Amino acid sequence: MRVLGVDPGLTRCGVGVVDGGPGQKPTLVEVLVVRTPPEDDIAYRLLAVAERVEALLDQHRPDTVAIERVFSQSNVRTVMGTAQAAGVVALAAARRGIPVAWHTPSEVKAAVSGNGNADKAQVTAMVTRLLRLDAAPKPADAADALALAICHLWRSPMQSRLAAALSTSVLAARPARIGSVGR
Amino acid sequence: MRVLGVDPGLTRCGVGVVDGGPGQKPTLVEVLVVRTPPEDDIAYRLLAVAERVEALLDQHRPDTVAIERVFSQSNVRTVMGTAQAAGVVALAAARRGIPVAWHTPSEVKAAVSGNGNADKAQVTAMVTRLLRLDAAPKPADAADALALAICHLWRSPMQSRLAAALSTSVLAARPARIGSVGR
Known about the structure:
The structure is a homodimer. By secondary structure, chain A is of the alpha/beta class. Chain A contains 5 helices and 5 strands. Chains A, B: This is Crossover junction endodeoxyribonuclease RuvC. Chains A, B: InterPro entries: RNaseH-like_sf, RNaseH_sf, X-over_junc_endoDNase_Mg_BS, X-over_junc_endoDNase_RuvC.
């Protein structure tokens, strides 16, 4: 199974591609950080991120795209840019029929280090060890994108079962809701 | 000049197309609300919004897309969906080379009603009057999208001069910054 993990952002958007699966050692395929100049127009920054991610999706054909679920913790302007970048990445995956999974920062930290409050240095160290890399991926956005991909490889068997159970219950419930959809 | 205004959202995304310009009465071209079911996957909801907006861009060929600038006021989940929807709309415009302008809710309210704190009913009433409509556009997202387009038509002469002045100063400043871009 191949996962493309994304630590979304406009100034720096980390993208990491990892192969693996339950019981397999994860292997690095590619990692890079897409950067766009803060002084550029937001729409063109989003276009630059989208075009680069689309090229990587077409090149590596991942089975799933795993994106960090953003919370409104830091300053509003940064969070909006991050959410917009996450949106265009999710759109690029949806256009290709590739499922998108969302993981919170604490889920990612817990998955790779066993500690949901791990700091950036611990996450980077664990990613370096798990992927058997000679040097730590830099900057932190690159390591975070790889951690997201690894997190998804390990959590996906559980998530797939959950999603299947949910979609069954949603499908079963939907006919009763159709009357209110047009409201 | 033709402006496509967008009140971004995943559950309801208002889109309004208006013709006009300085000294001209604004005229309604089209208004609609794109809806996506909350129980669907976010990536596919974004795809549904993107595809509908892209069809409208290709049909009406606006000179500018005006999008509401989102703030993190309400609940985090709603704001993230709104920012993601705004991102895919901005991306669709950028792909077509159509400039994107962002206006805050208070700028829009002030432009159409003269009061930056106007309520939804006042905005809807002014949009109905300004566009000489027989009935008020519904729901509020439709009226808000039209208000955004009208706001842009009236503010754009000033914004264009500002943007030109800014881009000149950014271009003048950029050579000095190149050394730090690759960091």
